[in-house]
Amino acid sequence: MIISVNVKKLGKKIASVEPTPFEIEGIPMTAEELVTACVRSCVAAYNSRIDNCEPRCISDEQFAAMEAAGKMAFGLPFSDKKANVNEAVQTALQAFDDGLFRAFVGETELESREQEIKIGENSEVTFIRLTMLAGRIW
Questions:
Q1: Of 37, 77, 101, 127, which sees the most CB atoms within 10 A?
Q2: In the β-sheet with 17-23, what is the strand arrangement from edge to edge?
Q3: Is pTM beyond 0.85 here?
Q4: Would you say 104 and 129 are in contact if contact means Cβ atoms under 8 Å apart?
Q5: 3-state SS class at 49
């Protein structure tokens, strides 16, 4: 199933969020299943990048785009260690329980793991990472 996940573009000074096609397995029926499916898909993509990693030349256009974004990235992993799917899923679910990120399907906020969701092909999903600020309030 392909869903549309809203992703913030890196390096933009103006908050630029664009929908990105995202492939997951199956049809999630609860918030927990949605988070699990998304994490499994991301871990699989990460692990496949490690397996298929080859140094490559970049074009002048790619170089200019990276320079404009303020980040030079060549698609090479920093480590040969693959991610553990089960650990990643548990970490993401714990972060969801702890309120470190919010998840929305359409305009409906997912408030608990057990919350039932209605999701279909090209449904819009948004994950918002919350930043904890340190310091004094007064």
A1: 37
A2: 17-23, 2-8, 124-129, 101-105, 108-110
A3: no
A4: no
A5: helix
Q: Where are the alpha helices (DSSP H) in 52-138?
A: 60-69, 85-98
Residue with tokens 């057990």: 114
DSSP state of 110: E
The residue behind tokens 């092909």 is 121
Q: Which residues face 12 on adjacent strands?
A: none
CA neighbours closer than 13 Å in the CB half-sphere of residue 9: 14
Residues of the chain with pLDDT under 50: none
CA angle 16, 18, 19 (to 5 degrees): 160
pLDDT at 109: 93
Match 């929908």 to its residue by tokens.
19
User: What residue has token string 């007064």?
Assistant: 138
Give Cα 125 distance to the centre of its chain: 11
